[in-house]
Protein 1
Amino acid sequence: MRSKRSTRVVLNLTIVVVGLVYALPLIWMLSTSLKPVEQTMSVPPTLLPTPVLDTPRYAVENYIGSVDAEGNPVTRGVWTDPVVDFPLFLRNSILVAILSVSGMVVSSAIVAYGFARVRWRGRGVVFGVLLATMMIPFPVLMGPLYVLFKELGWIGTFRPLWVPSWFAGAFNVFLLRQFYMTIPREIDEAARIDGCSHWSTFVHVILPLSRPALAVVALLQFIAVWNDFLGPLVFLQRQDQFTLALGLALYQSQGGNVPWNLLMAASVLVLSPVLIVFVITQRTFVEGIATQGLKE
Amino acid sequence: MLEPPIFAGIENYAGLFRDPVFWKVLRNTLVYTAITVPVSTVVAIAIACLLNSGVRFSAFWRAVVFLPSLVPLVASAMVWMWIFNGELGLLNAALDPLLGVVGAVIGRDVLAPNWLGSPAWIMPALILMSLWSIGNAVVIYLAALQDVPAALYEAAAIDGVRPLGRFRHVTLPMISPVVLFNVIVGLIAAWQVFAVPYVLLGAAGGPDRAGYFYTTYLYDNAFSYTRMGYASAMAWVQLLVILVLTGVTMLLSRRFVYYRGA
C-alpha cells in the first residue's frame, strides 16, 4: 500500500516514540547502575553520569566494588556483596536452567513423536487431556505440589525446579507435534521400510529435521525457568540455593534501603544472560513466538 | 501444615465467603484483569499495526518492543519501583512540568501521585506497568497481520473503503482468531499475577492491601499462615474462575471470530 508522504513521516515518528518509551526503563536501569549514589538523586534526573569519562570507574564500583592499595575492600559492588552471594545464585540459576531445559527438550520431543507418528488407542482423547492441562495455572497446583515434594523429601533441593521438566510440557509437546506433522510421512516410512524402529526413526529422521522447533522449545523453557520467581520461592528454603530471581528480591528486601544504583546493577546482572541469549537467537526467538498464535 | 489432615467438609469454602480479605483480593484481581486485558489488547494491536505499516527499521523496533517481555519479573519490578518512586522517580520527573502547566491553567497546585505509596494509585501503576510487557502479543499480532492477503486490501481499496473501514472490515476479521488466542492467554496470565506486586509492594500488597492479589493471598495461606486446606479451597475457586472466564470468552468469540477455511 502506498501512503502519502506526510502519513509516512507521522508513522515513522510514532514508532520512534513508542520504541523509546519501551526502551526507556531498560536504559534507565543501565544508566542508574553506572552512577554513584549521589547522582541517582539529582533533580531533574540525568541520563549519563557526570563526568561521563568516570563511567568505567563507577561501573567497577557498583558491579564489582573497589579495593584500597592493600587489596582490602573499600566499597562493595553487587558481585562482592558480603550477605547476598550473587556469584553463587548465578551458578544455581545456570545449573537449574541446564537441567530443566535439557529435560524439557528431550522429553517433549519424545512425547510429541508418540502423538504425531505412533497410532494407538485413545490417542486423540489423551492429547485433548494433555492440552487441557495448559489451562491449569501453577498457583492452583503449588499447594498439592508442595505436599507431594515434601513427601518425596525434595523440599529445599533443586529437584522440584527441574525434575518435572523431564516429564514434558503440554505446550511444547503441542508445538513439536505440529512441527512433526509438517514433515512428510514418506520420509519416515522409507526409514521404516529400511528396517528402522520407531526409536531410530525418531533419532535419525525426525530429530535432525526438527532443529528449529527444538530450538524454540529450548529458548522458551530457558526464559521460563530463568525468570521463574514463584517456583523457587515455594520450593527452595536455604539461601545458598537461591536462584538469581529470588536472590534479587532478597537483595532488595534485606537491608531495607539498598541504594538505587546497586539495586539497578543487580537487576542488570539478573537480566544480562537473558539479553545475551536474546541477541544471539533473536530471529529464532521472534519467529518461535510468532507461530504461537497461528495454529489452527 | 503437614499434620494429618482433618476432614472439614465445606468449611473451607464457607470460610472464603466470610473472609473480607478474600473479597478484597477477588475484587482487586477482577479489576486488574478486566482493565489490563482489553487495554493491552488494544495497545498491542495498535503497535503491531504500526510496525506493519511500512515504517523504517521495523524489525529493530519489533525487537525493542518485544524485549521487555523477556525481562525477569523481579528485575522489571525493581526498575519500575525506581521509576514510580514518588520523589526521585523518572515518571514523576516527567509529569511534574506537565502538571505544573495544568496547575497554572486551573489555578491550583496539582501534585504528581506517590504511586506505590497511595492506595488509589497502586492499581493504575500496576496496569501501566503491565503494558510494558506485551511484546509477546505484539509479535503474534504482527505475524497475523503479515498473513492477511494483500489482495483483500486491494479489493477493499478499489471498492472505495477508507483505511479505517479496511481495518474494521478486513484486518480485524482476519486476525480475530489470534485476538482470541491472546485474550485467553492474557486472561489466564492476568488472573494469576503474583511476582510483580509481591516484589513491588511487599507481601501485604501495599497500603490498604490495594495491590494484594488472588495468588498472593493463596500463597500466604498455603505457606505463611500454613492453612493448606483453605489455600486448596482458594485454588479450586481459582481454577473454576479461569475455566468460566475462558469458557465465556470462547462462547462470545463465536460471534466475533472468523476462521478462514471454516
Protein 2
Amino acid sequence: MIEVAGVSFSYPGLESPVLHDINLEIRPGEFLALLGRNGSGKSTFTRLLNGLLVPAAGDVIVDGYNTRDSSHRLRIRQQVGLLFSNPDNQLVAGIVEEDVAFGPENLGLPAAEIRERVRWALSVVGMEEYLKYPPHMLSGGQKQRVAIAGVLALGPSYMVLDEPTSMLDPRGREEVVRTLTKLNLEQGTAIIMVTHFVEEAAAADRVVVLDRGRVLVTGSPLEVLTRIDDLADWGLEAPEIALLCHELRKRGYSHFPMALDSRQVVDTIKQFPFKD
Amino acid sequence: MMNSFTFGQYIPGISLVHSLDPRTKLFFVVIMMAAIFAVNTLPGVLITALFTGIFIALTRVPLTIYFRGMRPLMVLVGITAAFQVFLIPGEVIWRWWVFSITDTGIEMGALMSYRLIMVFVLAQLLTLTTSPLQLTDGLEMVLGPLTRVGFPAHELAMIMTIALRFIPVFFEEGSKIILAQVSRGADFQGSWLKSARNLVAIMVPLFAQAFRRADDLALAMESRCYTGGEGRTQLHEITMSRTDYLVMAATAALVPFIFVLRT
Amino acid sequence: MSIRFLKVGFRYARGLPWETEALKNINLEVRKNEILGIIGPTGSGKTTLLQLMNGIRHPSEGKVLIDDQDPAVLKGREITRLRQKVGLVFQSPEDQLFANSVYEDIAFGPKNLGVAGSELDNRVRWAMEVLDLGFEDLSRRRPQNLSGGQKRRVAIAGVLAIKPEYLVLDEPTAGLDPEGRKGLLKLIRKLREDLGMGVVMVSHRLQDIMSTCDRVVVLEKGEIRKTGTPREIMRSGQELIELGLHLPPINMVLHELKDVFPYLDTAALGPEEAAGEIDRAIRGL
C-alpha cells in the first residue's frame, strides 16, 4: 500500500504551495485515475510517490518505507515505477532490448535473469518482436509500450504514469490503455494514471480529482464522471457518453441510467420497452 | 538526408568479424592504425594493406558500402595529398608558374593518402561490424582499469550510448524546425548577418528542446534506479573466445614487422 | 482565389531504395472564407499535404497553384512573397519559439519580410489581439514562462503576423487540455468569420473537425477517399472505421443502433443532436 498522509509540497522560489494536505491510500492492485486541469499539481504528485521529490510536510509511505529515508530509495523506486508522457525522452538506449535491460542492469542482476526479465516485460506489452529495433523506427504508441516494459522489468508493484497518452495519436492511445488494463488484470500491478482524457479514466476502479493542489473528490468513475456541471468547474470535460445520457434524461427519459461505456448505452436503448 | 550518409553506421551480420569481442576489434584497429602511421616503405605499405584487406574480406560487408561511406571524406584526402605533392621540397619533376612537383612530394602525397584512406577504412571496419552498444561496452571495459586513477570510463560510455540514441531524434527535430522557420520567411541565402540571425531561430529551439529532453531523461533514469556505474551489470556480457585470442595474437605478431619495415 | 492541387503526387527519397509514395493523384481546392478539415489514419500523408500548400515542399508530380501561381517555378523574393500568402503552423509549434519575449518571437516573421517600424508594431499587436493574447500582460514576457495553451497561441500569432490569406494548421489542439482546446477551436472559427481567411486543419480528433470545419477531406494511403460536409462524412461511419479512424463515442452509439433503427441518422454532431435522434427513433418517427 502507498500511504499519502497530510502531504504538502512547494517548489523553491514559488511561494504558493503546489499541493496542500493531500491524504490518499493507494491499494495494491488497484487502478486509480488522477484527473485535473493543467497546473493542478498532478505531475508533482506522481514524483512524490517514488521519492523523486520529498514532501515539505507529511509523509509518503510505500509498503512501510518512508520516502524521506534515503536508505530505502532504491527499494522504493523499484517498487514504484514512474513513466512520463514523452516516450522519446525516457528511452535511454538505441536498441529496444538494451533499453528494457537498463533498469535490471542498474539493480545489478545477473545476465541470465536480465534476459529473462526483458523477454517477459516485452511480451506483456506485446513488443517481443521488436527486440532488436532502434526506437526511432517505432510509432509513438510502440515507443510508449517499450517505455512501459522498461519500467516493468524492474518488477514494480505500482506503476505511476504521468499523462502517458497525451502525445499519442488515437491508435497509440488505445494501445497504451489496453496494455495498462491488461497489466493491471493479469499481473496485478497497481496503476496510478494521470490523464486529462476523461474517457481513459472510465477504465479505472477509482477516480481522484485534483484542483489547485487539493483533492476535490474521490469515487468510482461512474460517480465522479457523471457530475456534468461539477466537471466543468474542475476544468474537465464530461465524457461524451455521460452527456448523451444526460441529454436523454432531459428529453423525458428521466430514469435513463447514467453510463460511461457506449456498449452499455446501446444495450439499454435496445431494451427499451416501447421500442416497437 | 541522413540516409545517404553511411559512414559510421552498423550493418548487422553474422561474419567472423561481427562475432568478435569489441575489445579484440578495438585492439586490432588501434594496432593497425599505429602500424599504418609508422610504416614508410613500400613493403610496409603492402603488408599493412594485405592484413587489413584480409580483415575486410572477413567482415562480409560489400566493398561498395565502404566506398559509399568514404565518398564525402575523399575531399579531405585530396586536399591533404595536394598539399604534400606541391609543398614538399625535393627533385623537381614538373614546374608551372609557382607550382612545382617533386619526386619526394609525390611519394609523400601517396603515402599520406594511403594513411588517411586506411584510417577511414579501419574506422568503418569497426563501426560497420560492431553495434553502438557493443562498442561502448567494449570501450568501458578497455578503459575500466583507468577508473582507479579517476578516469570516468563508465560515464563516458553512458554519454556515448545516450548520444547515439538521440542523434536520429535531433535530426528529425532539426529538420522540422528549419522547415517551420523557413515558412515564416527565414532565408539562408541572404546576407551573412541575416543568415546568422536566422540561425539563432533554429539553434535556440533545438537547444531548448535538447535541455528539456535531458531533464526528462535524467528523471526517467533516476526513476529506473540508475545510481551510476557501480554495481551495474550488463545484458550482454562480453567474453573473449578462442578466436578473439587468436586474432589478438596475430595482430600482436605484426608489431615487430613494423619496426623492421621502417627505414 | 484559392490553393489548387492538380493531380499532385509526392515521393520521399526519390531514386533511393527506400523511396515511398506519400501522396498520389490529389485534386483539391482550398478556398478563402472556408475551414477545410483533413482527417486520416497516421501515415496517410496529411502532414505532407499541408507542407505542399505553402511551397516549402514541391510536388513530384502535378502542380500546386497558390492563387494561380506555381511556387515550384518561382525564385528568391517572389517565392517568399507567395509563401507569405499561406501561413503554416506545424505540429507543437511552441517547440519553435526562440526569442526572449513574446513580442520578438511574433515579430520574427514580418521582420524577415522586411516589415519595420510602426507597421511591425501594428502587426504584432493585431496578431496578439486576434489570438486573445493581452498585449500589456504578455508582450514582454518570456515565452517559456507561459502556459501550454498560451505558448501555442503565441506560436500561431507568429505565423498570423506575416498576414497570410490562408492558414494551415497541423494538429492545432494536440496535447492541450480541454479548456485550451475549446478556446483554440473558437479562435480558429474566428479567423474565417472575422477575417475571411481560408483555414486548413488536420486533427485526429474527429469531434474537433466536425465542430469546426465546413468541409472535410478523408485521406488514406496518400489518396483522397472522400470529401464532404462534416455531416456527410459522419454518415459514412462504417467506412471511417474501416479506414482505421476513431469515431466519436456518440457516433459509435448511433452507428451500433443502426441495426435496430435502420432509419437512424448517424451523422449527429454532439450529444444534444444525438439524443434528439435517438428520441425520434424510439418514438418511431
